[in-house]
Amino acid sequence: MTEPLEKRLEKAMAELQAAQEAMARTERELRQASFAVLSSDRAVRATVGPQGELTGIEFLENKYRDMSPQELAASVLEAAAAARVKMNRHVMKAMAPFTEPSSNVPELKGFEVDWERIFGPEVLRDDDEDTTRGAGHGPGWRDALDEDGED
Predict the structure, then answer these.
(1) CA neighbours closer than 13 Å in the CB half-sphere of residue 137
(2) How far is C-alpha 120 from the chain's CA centre?
(3) Contact 98/75 with Cβ under 8 angstroms?
């Protein structure tokens, strides 16, 4: 027997409210995120903020002194691009629960996001070196929508 419409609406409203609260927490967490990445020659560390903006550059161990301007520029660009990709992937992971359909209310389908169009194709490639991480922490709300009590 199917559930009465009033009960289904009540469930949907509760899930919508939980999703709105989870989205607000996610937005707050993402505003605080940053990622730092070393260039492959280990001469430069670039840090990006929550919107992928460059927030810091460090020249490590005076290696820049022995580099040509072109080499140094390439190291800076490489590290900045890699940090930006890490931030983009972090955003994708943080937003993933909102793209999935509701398990409790089948009418709530989630939404589709074309991450490649937003961030570029590199964001969808495997990243074996996803260990260099800045101030960002894993979202604490991942299970909030599943109502399992973990935050």
Answers:
(1) 5
(2) 14
(3) no
Q: Which residues of the chain register pLDDT less than 70?
A: 1, 105-108, 127-151
Q: Return the residue matching tokens 């940090």.
A: 83
| pLDDT tens sequence across 82-109 | 999 999 999 888 888 878 877 776 666 7
Q: What is the pLDDT of residue 149?
A: 40
**Contact partners, residue 135, CB within 8 Å, separation at least 6:** 32, 33, 34
For residue 1, list its beta bridge partners: none
HEC readout, 50-105: CCCCEEEEEECCCHHHHCCHHHHHHHHHHHHHHHHHHHHHHHHHHHHHHHCCCCCC
Q: Would the CA dihedral through 112, 116, 119, 123 be positive or negative?
A: positive
Q: What are phi and psi of 87, to 5 degrees?
A: -65, -45
Token pair for 138:
């894993």
Give the C-alpha separation, 33 to 52, whole Å.
10
* Residue 20 host element (H or E): helix 5-32
CA distance 110 to 42: 41
